[in-house]
Amino acid sequence: MKTKLMLRIIIAILMTGGLIGLNSCMDDGWDFSKISDEILLTPGIAAPIAYGELSLKDILIEFDSAGYIQEYEDSLMYISYAQDMFSYPSYDIMSIPDQDFLEFFIEAEVAIFPFWNDLPLGDTVSFDKNQDGSFEFPNGEKLDSIYVKSGELQINVSSSFLHSGIINIGSDSLLHDGEPFHDILKISSADGSFDTSYTVNLENYKIYLDNSDPVKSYLPLTFELSLINSGNPISQGESCNISLSFINFEFSSAYGFFGNYDLMVEDGEIVLELFDISEIEGQISFFNPQLVLNVNNSYGLPVQIDLSDFSTYSVANNVTTPLVFDGVNPFDILAPGIDSVGTSVPTRIEINNTNCNIAEALETFPNRFNYSVSAITNPLGPEDTDNFITDSSSLDVGIEVALPLHFKANGYALEDTILFDFEEQFGDNVDLIETFILDMDVKNGLPMEVNMQLFFKDENYNMLDSMFVDDKFLLPPTINAQNQITEPSENTKSIELDSAKLEKIKTTKYMFIRATISTAGAQDGDYVKFYSYYNIYFKLKLDAALNVNSRDL
Predict the structure, then answer these.
(1) What b-and-e string marks burial along 397-420, b requiring 16 or more CB atoms within 10 Å of the CB?
(2) CATH class of the domain comprising 95-257
(3) Cα separation, 297 vs 315, whole angstroms
(4) CA–CA separation, 228 and 230 (whole Å)
(5) Is-contact 517 450, C-beta < 8 A?
(6) How far is residue 495 from each of residues 48, 118, 395, measured CA to CA in Å?
(7) If 0-12 CB within 10 Å is exposed, 13-18 middle and 19+ buried, where does residue 425 land?
(8) Which helix (H) or strand (E) holds 351?
């Protein structure tokens, strides 16, 4: 039964430690081997019960379930609120529209052949045409080449000539495995009613376009119509009609000038949970807060991003602060060159106190960053002609509010109410205690001072009592001219609970916590940095008088 009593006392100590914020921090850094493994039934206990050393990184990560806390390479800690804004794959930006080409061989062109009526029966006469099919795009594109992932060429041929024949269709600018496209179709009917359609699979074809015309792009085509004399005349209105349709295009890559596209107009907001409370007291100023756009671009074309309607909103102060950019907006986004097809190039756009009023905006304690972002391609126009896009190209944009823990705080107050049912936590264990004194020796290696008080409240939120006699919890350490800690501060905090006070707070259902933080040198305007290796050292000592009935053991 001794183990049962020991567990009761340990639970009581842990819960009391929990009241001052230690319970959530007492992990691997605490040495519970200092707890005696045997409790004697004496009128009192006086012993060290636990000690530990926690780094700033340990403390922050312990309370950071959402993963906001990050660390720079130099060990400076920072708070990061980041989100992916949008991602634009190539098929969301550009597609190749269907193209239709129509060619005629009319009777006048055939009838002017000398001696047509004198030709022997069965002789063949050929008529050639070179024609440029106009490739049209909706946004002023001038493409040099297209590597076709999938697509079809629909060919329709009709002839009202009263002669059979052969049609050759070709293009040295339409290649498959390096070989020019060439297709032969037999006009099998000489009754003037020939009409047929068929499809050519263009998978893995390459299309090379002629951009010699400043306005349009062309695909050079050749047609050859060979008619076999059937003895019938060439009558007015007779013709051979050839139509080509490029449909259902998907490209694996394309090159040239892609025009000016409006890629996006995106609105959104970022929630800053640090200030997402209705009331805030005191002052806190960050030395170099940052709004960061992280862009990854695998399009081989210039992109420009414009930020508009950026503002912060503070629910605590009910104030909106527009963000003003000092000569840096819009922003040019890096792109891979023509020799780096398939790669992605990152661009980091950092907006800070050198080019924006973001530091002043944060002094209003904003809990929202509102933004509107747009982007265009080829902002300089047709001067940028070495563009390319692949089927895997994308523009991915993320936004981050980064708050390096390099700041000054003066009287910055935090308040919270937590559920704490005293009777449920302690039960009859309280009856074992006549007096209970918990001394906490603190060696503070963080560049700040903290005043903290905890209040006990009943189910109606009526105040029952407070925890500490005074609220000085952490004293400020000594810092040098570089605002770095040279010597930690030391102080002792005591909690004394006698049976009368324990009786008074038995009906506690809630605890109200109020902490006020001031950084070292804040009144002199000094900013301090919080590094991950800064630490706090605790040692807890217990002095308790117990009233134990041995018959309960």
Answers:
(1) bebbbbbbbbbbbeebeeeeeeeb
(2) mainly beta
(3) 36
(4) 6
(5) yes
(6) 15, 124, 58
(7) middle
(8) strand 345-351
- Percent of the chain at pLDDT exceeding 70: 83
- Say what the pLDDT of residue 20 is: 36
Neighbours of 200 (CB within 10 A): 17
C-alpha–C-alpha distance, residues 249 and 247, integer Å: 6
Domain ranges for the chain? 2-68+408-552, 79-91+261-404, 95-257
User: Which backbone phi and psi does 13 adopt, to 5 degrees?
Assistant: -65, -45
DSSP state of 356: B
Tokens of 112: 């002017």
Residue 413's pLDDT is 80
pLDDT in tens, 103-134: 766 666 666 666 667 788 888 888 888 888 88
Check for a shared fold between 79-91+261-404 and 95-257. Answer: yes
| Rounded (10°) CA dihedral 423, 424, 430, 435 | -80
Side-chain-facing half-sphere of 139: CA atoms under 13 Å: 16
In tens, the pLDDT along 347-390 reads 999 999 999 999 999 999 999 999 888 888 888 877 666 889 99
Query: CA 410 to CA 285: how far, in whole Å?
Result: 9
CA proximity to 176, closest of 210, 201, 198, 209: 201
Name the E strands within 140-212: 142-159, 164-176, 179-187, 194-201, 205-208
Which residue shows structure tokens 């109020």?
514
SS3 content of the chain, % helix, strand, coil (to 5): 15, 55, 35
- Looking at CATH, the fold of the domain delimited by 79-91+261-404 is given as Jelly Rolls (2.60.120)
CB within 8 Å of 67: residues ≥ 6 apart: none
